[in-house]
Amino acid sequence: MPDPSQALPDTPLAPAFQDLTPFNTLGLAARAAAFVSLRAPSELDALSTLAGRYPGLLVLGGGSNLVLPPQVDNLVAHVALAGVRLLEARPDAWIIEAGAGENWHGFVSACVASGWDGLENLALIPGTVGAAPVQNIGAYGVELADRFLGLTAWNVAQRRLVDMDAAACRYAYRDSVFKHEAPGTWIIVSVRFALPRPWRAVLDYPDLQRQAGLAGGTPTARAIFDAVCDIRRAKLPDPAVIGNAGSFFKNPLVDAATRDALAARYPGLVSYPQPDGRYKLAAGWLIDQCGWKGRHLGPAGVHDRQALVLVNRGGATGADILALAAAIQRDVADRYQVKLEPEPVVWRDAPPRG
User: Fold this and answer.
1) Cβ proximity of 107 and 120 under 8 Å
2) Is 174 marked active-site?
3) Annotation marks residue 37 as catalytic
4) What pLDDT does residue 36 have?
């Protein structure tokens, strides 16, 4: 086998040791034995060759939805593919393309500043453009799938670019086909969005309806963008101040009978009706009612203002975060008979090839 530390001919892809602590928003101390940064689509084929020298591949974006172990022995490819451009100004939509390595909030901010409205409800979500389709990110009444037109992804094993529409991505609540394929199968290269013309404000969530400046009248996309940023900053901790991965658990979906039975027992139950007749329960409310807000297990804790957010109080490992998450899941299941599902990806190295 070739020495995996050697650069491939005619490419800058030379794997090197890398401290991953600044590459994950939980701030977990982690090290990569082999790390490369992907900066141009022309490097994709070389990356496939390089990936074949390792038992597995971790594709890393902003690290905002990831729980890492202390040591990652598989190849880590940090996606740094940049660029934002207007592809087409159609009568019904602005068609925008962004490189997968673009910072998501920076991209949303640039769109609003350019008059390409429609993503403002998704402001201040951490991570990159390429990670957004994986999670089908959503907030305040808008999901990525609502504004998605298509993406281009590299199939690492087949060494080819593939264009994928929404059907191929199989979007669901905080879910996509990319979360079900083997890790390292795909590298998202760029994402295309259809931002509606004429634009219509989405103000379905009470938090937005209560925000000063949005009640009555006709708010602008900039006003909604600013309001979402204010709300998120008030509720959620800044990863630069205290390590966190945003909302750690999905809001569970239950059928109407389950929701009605719970509401009869717990009159304060927070739930939201869904188009398919089910209800989305507020995971943060369930966790808070179980007494976890502000509590901690060693260096891993629950944020004191938002029970959905698990934080690294200093020196926590991935195992510490997962132990806390498991304790919360047990308490919620015991009290409400509802299973909480974590949002972040828990990375475990692929086993060595035999």
Assistant:
1) no
2) yes
3) no
4) 97
Question: Where among 79, 96, 124 does a domain terminate?
Answer: 79
141 within a domain of the structure (yes/no) = yes
Q: Which of 337, 87, 338 is nearest to 192 (CA)?
A: 87
Q: Are residues 91 and 71 both part of a single domain?
A: no
Per-residue confidence (pLDDT) for residue 78, from 0 to 100: 97
Residue 146 makes CB contacts below 8 A (sequence gap 6+) with: none
**Catalytic residue chosen out of the listed positions 147, 174, 192, 232:** 174
* 282 vs 279: CA distance, rounded Å: 10
Q: Is the pTM of this model over 0.90?
A: no
11 occurs within a structural domain: no
In a domain, 353, yes or no: no
What tokens does 52 get? 């074949």
Give Cα 304 to chain centroid, integer Å. Answer: 22
User: Does residue 48 carry a catalytic annotation?
Assistant: no
Q: H/E/C letters for each residue in 178-230?
A: HHCCCCCCEEEEEEEEEEECCCCCCCCCHHHHHCCCCCCCCCCHHHHHHHHHH
Q: Is 16 helix (H, G, I), strand (E, B) or coil?
A: strand
Task: Give the chain's domain count.
Answer: 3
Catalytic residue, chosen from 97, 120, 143, 343, is 343
b/e string for 243-254 if b means 16 or more Cβ within 10 A?
bbbbbbbbbbbb
Q: Which of 176, 190, 247, 271 is catalytic?
A: 247
Asked if 103 contacts 109 with a C-beta cutoff of 8 angstroms, the reply is no
Residue with tokens 């996509």: 176
220, 245: one domain: no
Pair (164, 304) in one structural domain: no
Q: What is the mean pLDDT of each run of 10 residues along the chain (354 residues)?
A: 54 88 95 96 96 93 94 96 97 98 98 98 96 94 97 97 98 92 93 97 86 75 94 90 94 97 96 93 97 97 95 96 98 98 87 48
β-strand 71-79 against 31-38: which pairing, if any?
parallel
| CATH number, domain containing residue 206 | 3.30.465.10
| Domain identity same for 293 and 153 | no
Q: Which residues contact 137 (CB under 8 A, 6 or more apart)?
A: 104, 122, 125, 127, 143, 144, 174
Residue 297 lies in a domain: yes
| Host domain of residue 48 | 16-79
